[in-house]
Amino acid sequence: MAGKAQFGSKIGLIAATVGSAVGLGNVWRFPAETQSNGGAAFLLLYIACVFLLGIPVMLAEFSLGRGKRSDAVGVFRKLSPHSGWWIVGAVAILASYLILSFYMVVAGWTLEYLWQSVTGYLYEPINAVAANAGVEGLEQQFKLRMQEFIVQDSRPVIMTYIMLLINAGILMMGVQKGIEKMSNILMPLLFLLLLIFSGVSLTFPKAMEGLEFFLNPDFSKITPSVVVNALGQAFFSLSLGMGILITYSSYFPKNTKLTRTAVTVSMLDLLVAIMMGVIIFPAVKSFGLDEGGLEGATLVFVTLPEVFAQMPVTQLWSILFFLLLLVAALTSTISLAEVSIAFMQDRFKLHRTTACIAVIAPLFVLSTLCSLSQGSLSDFRIAGFTLFDFLDNTATNYMLPLVAIFTCIYLGWFAPKGYFYNELTNHGSISTRIYTTLLFVVRFVAPILIAVILFAKIFE
């Protein structure tokens, strides 16, 4: 596509693509999944799934985007113009937009907790209670604080609106000046904060117990359910099936080595997840907070503030953590929004500013409804779920696996002959044996394994 935007440097390309994968799922979903699925045994399965499933599917999406330099619908229309394969891209765009609508709400919660950490309000009323009531009283107070904030009608909505405006400002600046520049700043900051927290966590009194749970596998913990969950986490953490990787790879220069890029992005994404484990498990073991399981929202907004409240310079650690979380939230929401913005630009030939407004404006309504569904609209339910949970369940558990399955089927069986080979190898730059192996995974292994995840979730 003439005049198509692209990333300006290799570092910017990697930073932006890693940022599109690293997000809230790495920070709260991975530790929770690891604890509930047997610790180190789950970690080993997760690593295996990243390499056996994640990288090949990522390469399939990269080859579509870089090859045809278009949005998630456009790549299928260009490759197979007289077929219905474009529906796969359309489902990916819809799924990413639904996820974006409730991710913005979580991003707003994160901004609120960062603000409360900066002002000290998050801890001031609680420390006095904790002095008399101990750890159990401390936990109860943080649970009440989380519930009080989330179920409010106005404050969470205001914070969500602020995050929407921040996203709009960055996105309107474009691919290089907006997304790439933001990623070049925020991704090093994220890794620096992770490194600091990892170092601090290793000084806790029961750090070795936490690391043993996380890194010393008990293979008796491996069950079919744990394998399925590991596949699901690898799939989710790499942003497969969302249209993000197709969209971002359409900004890759033509000489980008796709295999090297996929391995680098997957390794860095894996590193973030492992560092979060190093941070979480020594902390919860040391402060006796690992009973009863870790859950996403509870882990981030209750368990970790409990840890900070029992550490010296509580406010500093709280500020740094919620800054880390906000960085993860921002890179996630930016990449999710870019999927729809690219579609609006490519399909309807809109100016970027107009496309950004067209994508962000409806979110002021949809994200508001998601936020209120946790409060005053909580009695309004779809199939037993609040709107927030319904969108989460529908998009992440069903739509994303379907997109990934049909993307692999298309690349493996229906794409023009030689297309996948030429894109994957840069017209012959890697060995035929490597290509043959990757093609086998894309044709057979990945669709079958992802289908197992899908059916397991349907019938669980």
Please explain how this structure is put together:
It comes from Muribaculum gordoncarteri. The chain is mainly alpha-helical and 460 residues long. It has a single domain (10-459), classed as Hydantoin permease (Orthogonal Bundle). The chain is built from 19 helices and no strands. The protein has helices at residues 10-21, 24-36, 40-68, 74-79, 86-119, 124-150, 155-172, 175-201, 207-215, 224-237, 244-249, 258-286, 296-309, 314-348, 352-360, 363-372, 387-414, 419-425, 432-459. Helix 1 (10-21) packs across helix 12 and helix 3 packs across helix 18. It is globular and about 65 Å long. The mean pLDDT is 90.
Count of discrete alpha- or pi-helical segments spanning 4 or more residues? 19
Structural class: mainly alpha
Gyration radius (Cα, Å) is 22 Å
Distance between the termini: 45 Å
CATH class: Mainly Alpha
**Unreliable sequence segments:** none
